[in-house]
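Re: Re: ligand-bound prediction request (bumping)

Still looking for help on this. To restate: I need the protein modeled with GLP bound, output as structure tokens. Inputs repeated here so nobody has to scroll up.
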Amino acid sequence: MIIGRCGDYESVSIFAADLVGRAISKKPHGVFGFATGSTPEGLYKLLVARYQHGEISFDQMTTINLDEYVGLPPGHEQSYAAFMQQHLFGQVNIRPESIHFPEAGPDPSEFDEFIRNAGGIDLQILGIGANGHIGFNEPGSSFHSRTRVVSLAESTIRDNARFFDSPDDVPREAVTMGIRTIMNARKIVLLASGAGKADAVARCLRGPQTEEVPGSCLQAHPNVTVILDHAAASKLNDKN
Ligand code: GLP
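Reply:
Sorry for the wait, this slipped through. Here it is.
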């Protein structure tokens, strides 16, 4: 695991944009996994700028998103599809038919098969929840889990309420790529910023590998780069 330590959120975004931009240039027809949340917003802004300057192109890639709320009406402004449209997809030359989100249909795990048939994820971007979740794999998620519908933890509902008019409006369920699905990606890039993530980062990177801390599975992945700002790295207690 490579840990990139940056001073602040802006440097995390630049570090991530360099890494992801290089991966896109190297394999423009690759399968790229995107995440939502406030953390990757800076990265997406920089990727859009690089596209506008003609440095990278999105027209050959396949995109896979990590998760989506269940129960929001299509096009709802807080849906993750709308988020991606606003922050990245709507501003670059991605072909609409190459955009894929997990769906809460009769068998959500068909998404795993779809990913396999597409050649597997070349690079998966991840954020992290304050409780250590990745995607919407909440504490207790099996390390063998596939794409499925999950109930959101109360703490996640509280954390995500900032995006909605009231906590009551936050969906109680989501469909998420499983831990196994995420671990099958060839490369993973995890971003974290701010003191609110310091505990989760320390538990995921330095604590025991346990399903109670979903992100701790990443310790077993052969190709992970973690990009942290000073505050998010503040509880790592080492100099690596
Ligand atoms: C959300 C998403 C995750 C995201 C996390 C952190 O609930 N399901 O994919 O990584 O929470 O979000 P933020 O970056 O806004 O802190």
